[in-house]
Amino acid sequence: NRAPADLAFFEDLEPPLGDFLADASAGLASAPKTLSPKYFYDQRGSELFEGICETREYYVTRTEIALLEKLGPAFAEKAGKGTRIIEYGSGAGVKIRTLLDALDEPAAYIAIDISREHLLGATRTLAADYPHIAMGAICADFTAPLTLPPEAAIGNGLALGFLPGSTIGNFSPEMAELFLSRIAAMLGKGGALLIGVDLKKDKAVLDAAYNDAAGLTAAFNLNILKRMQNELGAVLEPDNFMHKAFFNEEKGRIEMHLESLCDQAVELGGTRYPFAKGETLHTENSHKYTVEEFTRLAEKAGFAADTVWTDENDYFSLHWLNV
Ligand code: AVI
Question: Which GO terms describe its biological process (predicted)?
């Protein structure tokens, strides 16, 4: 693949984007009804998510950014000169900038994302602002087994994986362990991972974070029904569903559902899927961990725990893990 001139390299693994119709049909046919949260993120869903990150109730983003800013000198000391950062998912850029600014002459930044357009846009914007750092991009499903392309061997500084935002929480613990073991294999012996993990805390705080007063999380959840209408020609009435999110203490996770307000049916691809009043379509899990629980998970995946930092309320944690 030809890299745009401002990038050190671009590798396109042409990841399958998933089949929304097949997945939605299978999810509606299953009991209980489910749908993958990956379908939240169309243009509108991504904008709503950015809005959620700014709400008073969703403490996650601002707490993590404050920690990243405060801990810059600690990261710089651990990483040394010439670090190669590999980010799993390319975000809005705020978090990676705190890291690029803090580290001592980082050599390279490599972003991995499934959305080609978003990946190239975000990486090229960074390339313009950090002309002395080699910027690379890999278009791939970052949860798949991956190897770093030879072009990524820019110097021999630390290979530092970066997975902020508690993205890991949206995986089941079993899938999280598998994904982390793949990251460890990709980074290789001597590598390290800096990962943000949301912590277990008072249920009221967790419940509020997923039920913001402005209704952005509700709109984000309901947007998946609008996508089914607009993109798949589903026949359904979004107003007949209600956003429902709560902390399931037994399973240690926030669950998001769309609850049917009446007996009704959704029609998709020529099939009718009946919903009883009160029945839900389960759209997302967001697992919360204690520091000890997450450390154990990371160790099972092949990492050695190095350092954990938390904010003053113990709401959120950053883990430095060594391969
Ligand atoms: C992206 N992910 C870490 C968010 C979370 O908190 O699980 C997605 C989200 N869902 C509702 N609010 C935010």
Answer: methylation
